[in-house]
Amino acid sequence: MFDRLTDKLAAVFKKLKGHGKLTEAQVGEGLREVRLALLEADVNYKVTKGFIDRVRERAVGEEVMRSLTPAQQVVKIVHEELTTLLGGESPKLDLGGRPPIALMLVGLQGSGKTTTAAKLARRLKGQGRQVYLVPADVQRPAAIEQLKRLGADCGVAVHPSETGQNPVAIAAAAMEAAYTAGYDTVILDTAGRLHIDAPLMDELKAIREKVEPKEILLVADAMTGQDAVQVGQSFNDLLRLTGVILTKVEGDARGGAALSMREVVGKPIKFLGVGEKLDALEVFHPDRLASRILGMGDVLTLIEKAQETFDVEQVKALEKKLRQEAFTLDDFREQLRQVKKMGSMEQLLGMIPGLGSKMKAMKDLKPDDRELKRVEAIIGSMTPGERADHNLINGSRRRRIALGSGTSVQDVNRLLKNFTMTQKMIKQVAQGGKKGKGILPKFF
To answer: Torsions phi, psi of 190, nearest 5?
Structure first.
């Protein structure tokens, strides 16, 4: 998300950094280009105008003009104003009160409500909540079966709804069932339409009045841009939303919906759907997203992903192996599998400050997730003995491994060369730690 906007803003700031001191005219020209970049990113016109006016007011004042690094000050101001535009603080779900607490997901058909309901259930279950999923969409064929399947995948109970039942009755019965069974959180997956109409709104209002949800969350497709913002306005006017979940963010290169939603709709974005997998739901952090937009990376989210993915005991066991210089191809493969769970390589490397822009500049070095699959296939074609000691792998064994993995001997050679280099690097770091010159990083 925001690839084009990030590139354009980087070009603007690079031009500003070329001047030792900035005049009001130079700042004005830079902001004109920022305004065009925002409009091209499908940001709402009024939102863009207000944003530029606020940045200009600060950027032509003493804060920038008297600074020793005026261009950096402009970037700082843009970052702060972007953070404010996106909502300022990270909003949290309101889960307080007498259980069961109801969370109601609403939105148009095709926005990803059902998948988002399961993703949210999985996240809350991981936080210790007892979650109950409720299929209240009796309009879309197979919606109920889809949620039952997703509930099974994430280990969450699903209410036994049936096609033809009244959605309001389903919601009421589900709340009773959740109370009896001891569930503290109920997630309602409601029906959508291709457009907003009176029957849909009447149904959603009736459910709201019956179950009194703590949260009414709009699930909106980020790829529809300003249409998503207009939908958000309409739903908020009729239902009094408490927040927004933007889905399909990974496919939205412009990002206008994310930048416009908070200011136009007046409700915070609480989560971002960043992929199809059930773990692809991120808490929305305005400051972190502002940093990503400006090419500053997002180290905190990267760390959180690692903490969620890597098991503490596994990390300790691996650290012990590294210190004993006993790191094998089996360990190498296991670490690759753990990294794959965190997301695509391009996405992960893009969170490292400064690396995202370098990756774009060096297109030939763009990470290919298929390479990880090839590496897994090659290691999987080795015998246990070969994985434990790669020095056993001679010419004939390399040919056998290549044939078994559907790769070439050159691919096998490249993997072994990279693995040997990794082992040497680990050995040097470990020895440095023993001599007091360094230490193995705890996160490795």
So the answer is: -95, 170
